[in-house]
Amino acid sequence: MNPTRTARLPAALLLPTLLLAVLLPALLWTGTARAADPNRPTRAEVYQALGLEHQPADYVILVDTSPSMTQQGRYETVRQTLQTFLSGLTGADHVALYTFDTTVIARYIGAAGDPVGILSRLPAAPGPNGDTDIGAALNAALGELERGDALPIASVVLMTDGENAPAAGSAYPVATTAAWTAALHARAAKLAGHTDLVGYALPLATGATGAQLLSQVVTDTRELVPGSIQDLGSYLQRAGDDTRLRQARAVLAPDLGQGVTVSWSGPQTLDLGTGEATGTLSFTSRAARLPLSVDSIAVSVAGRPFTVSGLPSSLILSPKSTQDIPVRITGRLDGGPLTPRHVEHAGVALKVTGTVGSPWQPALAPDLPLDIPPTLRPAELPVGVSGQVGSAATLPLLIGVPLLVLLVLVLAWVRVYRPALDGVLLIEPAFGEQIPEHVPLTGRRVRLRPALGGAGRVRGRRRVSERGARIDLRIRYSPDGSQARASSVTCAPGSRVVAAGTAFVYRPASTEPPGRPS
Q1: Which of 21, 229, 263, 405 has the most CB atoms at less than 10 Å from its CB?
Q2: Tens digits of per-residue pLDDT, 396-455?
Q3: Is residue 515 predicted with pLDDT exceeding 70?
């Protein structure tokens, strides 16, 4: 890392503010204005809700105690800044304080609950002689973070005012810098596989090479060099927020990608006999720490003219909570216009839509994407419905109308092929003189048993001619009553016909009483 350097602030002013930015995020928790809308909290309120002030972190602090640190009050400034920092930590945080010059000395390793006691371990002043072995200091920092009970959030803070200048015989000589930084980098990369590891370099003088070396060991290294006094405040705010974001990211990691599921917890079959039924939609958050919201909630029934009412336009779900929303489904099953009345059962799909998000999303974006699935799951819910369909009049109509048509057809057939008879039928031998026998024609069929013998029957047949409608007689006669000698003839009104040697004359009632037909 070779950042462009600008004019430096005096070390006595610059160092305390830089160190507070890196190591004292807890001091920035208080004094934050409350959000006007509880459903849109500020970032500080989100951190407070997550309890980040109680989330422990590892801090490894490397302080240069080479002779040059006595210049411009640098060492004394470091001591004062560390005292302020340590006072803001909790007993859950773990601090490892090392000094380095020719050798590296662990001044304090343990909980951060006694700032005065920890600071008492530092030497009163740098020694008059000594080198600057930054490689050895970085090796000690990694060794500390490789302990079995290391915490998931770790920061390595390097404060030096000089270049790497180890003593002869050091395991980290300048000549082999590439080799030993590569070896330390491999160890740091292994740590980063299970630890959120970030390095912070605070160069205390122009030409200090600690930032470059730290970045070669710890991939995510940030050099804290404000350009001027004017942007120092905003820079410190961003640095403090960066530490809290790392803690928030670790706490919320299990919730990333978790969303809202919806289920039907009402009756499995809705009775729509009265045109409406009630049920319950259950919205469940799958997030353990993250509150979730659902906006623009709507429900429709696929392929059915039903309406669903009673849903709120939006709701907010606490972590791992479920909200049951009573809903009313209005509509009727349609069996068609000719369906007899009966109870029909059908399956429908409730299509539930809504936009899933989190009230915390605006406060954390864009630094901490929450990756919330934007839609409800599943998209459709199967539900059974039942209800009476059809008309009570349908079945009688389905039976009655065909019967009526049949009756009309029968009556029409009877009218044509079996009309009511009237008048008389004269029967006499076809040859010879004999007074004809008068047979009255009544009903629709007449049996013949003439005095001259034989047997037969008479029925009518309505016909239409140019002169209008008339009834002809269909006469079937056998002179001995057997079917073998039976003959059939048709006799029009006023006509004379012969069948099997017997003459028949039809005189309808509308004509004058007949004499002997010519």
Answers
A1: 21
A2: 766 778 888 988 888 888 878 888 999 999 999 888 778 899 999 999 999 999 988 899
A3: no
Query: Following CA atoms 217, 218, 223, 224 in sequence, which dihedral angle do they give, to the nearest 10 degrees?
Result: -130
Amino acid at 464: V
How many CB atoms are closer than 10 A to CB 258?
A: 22
Query: Can you read off the two tokens belonging to residue 73?
Result: 């009050």
Paired tokens of 88: 């803001």
User: What integer pLDDT is reported at residue 38 of this predicted model?
Assistant: 65
**CA 193, CA 97: separation in Å to the nearest integer?**
24
Give the mean model confidence (pLDDT) for residues 180-188. 96
DSSP secondary structure string for all residues of 142-186: HHHHTSTT--SEEEEEEEESS--BPPTT-SS-GGGHHHHHHHHHH
Q: pTM score > 0.85 for this model?
A: no
E strands along 361-467, which residues?
A: 380-389, 424-429, 437-440, 445-448, 455-465
DSSP 3-state of 332: coil
Compute the distance between CA of residue 503 and CA of residue 477 in angstroms, rounded to an integer: 10
Strands (E), 22-163: 58-64, 94-100, 104-111, 153-160
